[in-house]
Fold this protein.
Amino acid sequence: MTTSPKTAIILGSGLGELASEIQDTYEFPYAEIPNFPISTVEGHSGKLIFGKLGGKDIMAMQGRFHFYEGYDMKEVTFPIRVMYELGIKTLFVSNAAGGMNPAFKIGDLMVITDHINLFPEHPLRGKNFPTGPRFPDMHEP
């Protein structure tokens, strides 16, 4: 079993099938993990997976939770804090994103290098958890 992965991937809409490429897996349904929310989005399987991808130990979330599902930011960000406590150093987050460029096609891969937070509830608001800095550097998120 993969015991100490340093890399995690959150498989959002469209990339859930990447989980089938992970080898030597141990899978845990979110429903069996204390305090994990349950994803209600179609296509989000709701499993935490440990295994190997490209020969590297990884952790993967197959599906995630969203603010629009009614979860608050503390619940949405809970798995990230768990990953940190488990020793994750690099996190890849995938999502279905739109673009204004008419040359973009469905399925194109893009790298998002910045964002604007338009949520009314900010993920850094509230009690500070000792797992990281109160206000992380967002110069290069």
About this structure: The mean pLDDT is 82. The chain has one helix and five strands. The helical segments are 73-85.
